[in-house]
Amino acid sequence: MKKYTSVQDVDNLEGLVQEALHLKENPYKYKKLGENKTLGLIFLNPSLRTRLSTQKAAQNLGMNVMVMNLDKEGWALETKEGAIMNGTTVEHIKDAAAAMGQYCDIIGIRSFPKLQNREEDYNEELLQQFITYSKVPIVSLESATRHPLQSLADLLTITENKPAGKKPKVVLTWAPHIKSIPQCVANSFAEWMNQADVELVITHPEGYSLADEFTAGATVTTNQDEALQDADFVYVKNWSSYEDYGKVLTDGNGWMMTNEKLQKTNNAKVMHCLPVRRNVELSDEILDGPNSLVLEQANNRTYAAQAVLKRMLETM
Amino acid sequence: MKKYTSVQDVDNLEGLVQEALHLKENPYKYKKLGENKTLGLIFLNPSLRTRLSTQKAAQNLGMNVMVMNLDKEGWALETKEGAIMNGTTVEHIKDAAAAMGQYCDIIGIRSFPKLQNREEDYNEELLQQFITYSKVPIVSLESATRHPLQSLADLLTITENKPAGKKPKVVLTWAPHIKSIPQCVANSFAEWMNQADVELVITHPEGYSLADEFTAGATVTTNQDEALQDADFVYVKNWSSYEDYGKVLTDGNGWMMTNEKLQKTNNAKVMHCLPVRRNVELSDEILDGPNSLVLEQANNRTYAAQAVLKRMLETM
Amino acid sequence: MKKYTSVQDVDNLEGLVQEALHLKENPYKYKKLGENKTLGLIFLNPSLRTRLSTQKAAQNLGMNVMVMNLDKEGWALETKEGAIMNGTTVEHIKDAAAAMGQYCDIIGIRSFPKLQNREEDYNEELLQQFITYSKVPIVSLESATRHPLQSLADLLTITENKPAGKKPKVVLTWAPHIKSIPQCVANSFAEWMNQADVELVITHPEGYSLADEFTAGATVTTNQDEALQDADFVYVKNWSSYEDYGKVLTDGNGWMMTNEKLQKTNNAKVMHCLPVRRNVELSDEILDGPNSLVLEQANNRTYAAQAVLKRMLETM
């Protein structure tokens, strides 16, 4: 595996899931594989779960890890080809990525969208340039449009918890939030579920449609009640508008997930990628109750990252 | 050992001291013990000695270490049960602690008091919630009211330097400072000395009494001269008022420790946890002279942390 | 080797170069040497290449690495002897360096000049005090006046790329920049080239002479065209004025290095320490073309650091 930025980079999805579940049982079995190999983790935005789980995954494989918080350093990268750099950017991504590629065998990078200009964000310029110029395998730690390590962890969690003998119904439901939030987790979850053996239903208020490239094939409705009927899994997540790009269009009154709403489901397990705004996106009663899978999702982040890193190490 | 937050968490104090001194002689003897175990260090406040010494202690035991500077990330944690999180906090401590507990075998956490509301600080809400929700052993790297790794290092230093054949007289003396400083180090030192085989005398200006729960059993006086008589160890430390909570009540003129004052003592060794305000708390002549133990205290921080981590690893 | 702050600290320069090139071929051969040894990296200023390459070098030697970003912590160090510390500095360098020396076997430190007061900067007070008080070997990660790990990497790169059978002509040319930049890299490069088997020519606009202690022995001219004649290597770098200390005296129109200028050279290889302001210091066409050595320089940073650390470890 040369890059891991989307489900499109995975050639055998079921194989990767089984690999990750195998690593969960045998986390230190491949500790020789990463010996004398270095993972560089570059953060242009804050991170808690991704940082810790990816670091742990690498250590489980015997790798060294070096962390760079470029956001904290004020190390502003230029991305425009041909720029005359007499302004505020201190280094061109060409040079920074190429230099980092000299010190790292694999690079993980996190770079959120700015939510100002949709085309710019959806071009994934920074991620693509890192791939081009670093010349080493790149793992997305969440980019402008996707969060593929989260999605793999989500799929592991669903695989471990799905009802026997049926194709599970998975509902991705929009939830309220007070801030303008990227579409990444929702895009990515939809994209992965569409490749998995599940029935995907997406529900959100008017104006919150995700881009077709991620959702095509899923059932989409603005009627949350209807969507939740007989669901086996409910994935709760806020996102800002894709159409009216980056905007918060509604306070989302009535969209918070509660135990009352769970009554309509098939005693659905409830998922969220965290961090969660309690009692805004999801009620305390769900998060602290028996239907919540949020901690299992967090735990599976380690094995998702480990499976991806293992595949990359194997092709070196 | 499931938590290390106070001397109350130590069931055999003399045993722990001996263990630490044994590790000082044999720092790498137990390097297999921490193999494939991860220590997470979470800082909500700056740290130099604690960060480096605890990291080194863990590496001596073969552990992996992951550091999170939550203060630098602006990752504000909610601590109120049932909060509707539509404000500035981005994650509830319940979820953050539980997630971190998935990635770490032991967690160390530093969280200073705000010095605004005494009851809130002395409830140690953040530390207690971390213990409850992370589900892994917790080491305090200095909390709102105590600094137990410092106190163990202090006790090691006293043990190594005490005069033969007598119970040493240990004086904790208040010293001036220009800022409002927590009571943690003083509280903790008093609490530990009261459990050790020493005679403890505490001296401070009017209005600077520490809470009884830490000092009960010690002699307390506002007469520094009297307190210093025949002292074998003088522990110098500033703290803000406990009574008039968090306030600086005096410029402390005359309370700085000097060689002249040492004349009254039994050629006492002088201790301070560092960082020290030179020529405000303690004179250069003492810090640069033969009576200072401050660097031995700093060095012993490693073995204090290592003994605590070793005990935790042994019960896993 | 007890300290590495300048070429003066190297007793056999050719030997060190050969050692580094040997390590480049055998990076993990001495992995036992650094076992149970700890490198502390202290940054008072931002760093990308130095941080990653030095960390990697230490890991190649089996060392543990602890990183401290003192600039981010607001941990202001006092350097004045005898200071009454009732101001903004929180710890005297005496105590901070001595404490860090307890936890680290080798310390690397980066501290840029303030460019306000030449004498102060050129006294290298902070670096010298670290050497005095930490009591462990000190590696400069770029100080107020020199950048010796960069210079060793530069010399490695020249050694690998020099034309056979002749003493290469190396030209250090000043280039424009929009900010006031330290003289460190230029000072250091001149100092090293003067010790190496090359012909050194330095060219810069009026007012940009470097201090004699670094350049003595080299040819210096303000005529860039003349300097570039038959050059084998062109090292491009901006620096602020040493004479009119820290000032930017000209916009440097016409001093940017371009392919047109390379016509005058012996098809010279072009070097820069990075980060580079593209199309201000150096044109895209050079950086993206076949004459650029900038990535080889970045790569050689690892082996420069590894050779220095190896020498220090061997004398412990």
Report on this model:
Three copies of one chain form a homotrimer. Chain A is globular and about 55 Å long. In chain A, 37% of the residues lie in helices and 15% in strands. Chain A has helices spanning 13-25, 49-60, 70-73, 93-103, 118-122, 125-134, 148-161, 184-193, 212-215, 224-228, 259-262, 284-287, 294-314, and strands at 3-4, 38-43, 64-69, 77-78, 91-92, 106-110, 138-140, 169-174, 199-203, 219-221, 233-237, 269-271. The mean pLDDT of chain A is 97. Chain A has 316 residues and is of the alpha/beta class. Chain A has 13 helices and twelve strands. In chain A, the strands form three sheets. Chain A has a five-stranded parallel sheet, with helices on both faces. Chain A has two domains: 3-146 and 301-314, Aspartate/ornithine carbamoyltransferase (Rossmann fold); 149-297, Aspartate/ornithine carbamoyltransferase (Rossmann fold), CATH 3.40.50. Chains in contact: A-B, A-C, B-C. The interface between A and B is medium-sized, with 29 and 29 residues.
Structural class of chain A: alpha/beta
Poorly predicted regions of chain A: none
Determine and state the CATH class of the largest domain in chain A: Alpha Beta
CATH topology of the largest domain in chain A: Rossmann fold
Helical region count of chain A?
A: 13
Helicity range of the residues of chain A? Answer: 25-40%
Distance between the termini of chain A: 9 Å
Q: How would you describe the shape of chain A?
A: globular
Task: Work out the count of structural domains of chain A.
Answer: 2
